[in-house]
């Protein structure tokens, strides 16, 4: 890997021009200008790969690219996590203490067996409960983070859409607890989760 730094040369007590430095088992050696050249080569290679997928890739591969663009745009617009952008999370309150996400099942979410990956399901439950609690915080808090979560997988994540619904159980001065159910469009219960969240004061 390359890093850019101000390099001193041969013990001379003056700063040389900024150079790219490559770390090697033998120590440091200078590789002037190659840092930016390497970055430009990476951009060219990436463009070639993207063009290849758009030209020769299948529908699933192009959908993954589209989701990547969605994740980047959502990060720019809302400063959300890239994973949230890949899943297309846009939630809504369905009651004073209930919050839900309803999202399509995409190839990004599937494991080799063709069902929603357990890690994706857990992340969705965590995001739903966390979103509910963070939106219920008063102005004296900066946010809430997961302290503990339990996930029970009850049936395979199949179908066209999954609906993740969280319900607030209790909100104290330091901790909040919630539960979450994830179902498909046929109302089949896929996952039940519960979580405890630490509330960070300003």
How would you describe what is shown here?
By secondary structure, the chain is of the alpha+beta class. Helices cover 34% and strands 36% of the residues. It contains 4 helices and 9 strands, in the order E-E-E-H-H-H-E-E-H-E-E-E-E. It has a 6-stranded antiparallel beta sheet with strand order 4-5-7-8-9-6, with helices on one face. A 3-stranded antiparallel beta sheet has the order 1-2-3, covered by helices on one side. The longest helix has 23 residues, at 34-56. The two termini are 38 Å apart.
Q: What is the strand tally?
A: 9
Q: Which term fits the overall shape?
A: globular
Oligomer category: single chain
Order of helices and strands: EEEHHHEEHEEEE
Detail the topology: elements first, then pairings:
Layout: E1 2-5, E2 19-24, E3 27-30, H1 34-56, H2 59-78, H3 82-87, E4 92-95, E5 98-104, H4 118-136, E6 141-153, E7 161-171, E8 175-184, E9 189-201
Antiparallel strand pairs: 1-2, 2-3, 4-5, 5-7, 6-9, 7-8, 8-9
Short summary:
The protein is an alpha+beta fold and 202 residues long. The protein is built from 4 helices and 9 strands; from the N terminus they run βββαααββαββββ. β4 and β5 (98-104) form a beta hairpin.
């Amino acid at each position: 890997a390359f890093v850019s730094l101000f390099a001193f040369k041969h013990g001379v007590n003056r700063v040389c021009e900024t150079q790219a430095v490559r770390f090697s088992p033998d120590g440091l050696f200078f590789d002037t200008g190659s840092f930016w050249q390497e970055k430009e080569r990476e951009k060219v290679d990436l463009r070639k790969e993207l063009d290849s997928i758009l030209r020769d890739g299948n529908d699933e591969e192009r959908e993954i690219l589209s989701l990547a663009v969605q994740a980047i745009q959502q990060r720019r617009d809302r400063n959300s996590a890239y994973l949230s952008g890949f899943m297309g999370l846009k939630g809504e309150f369905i009651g004073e203490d209930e919050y839900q996400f309803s999202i399509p099942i995409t190839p990004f979410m599937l494991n080799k067996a063709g069902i929603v990956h357990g890690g994706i399901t857990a992340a969705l439950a965590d995001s739903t409960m966390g979103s509910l609690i963070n939106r219920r915080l008063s102005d004296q808090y900066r946010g809430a983070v997961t302290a503990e979560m339990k996930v029970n997988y009850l049936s395979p994540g199949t179908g066209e859409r999954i609906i993740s619904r969280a319900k607030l159980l209790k909100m104290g001065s330091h901790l909040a607890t919630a539960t979450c159910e994830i179902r498909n469009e046929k109302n089949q219960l896929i996952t039940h989760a519960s979580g405890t969240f630490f509330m960070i004061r300003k």
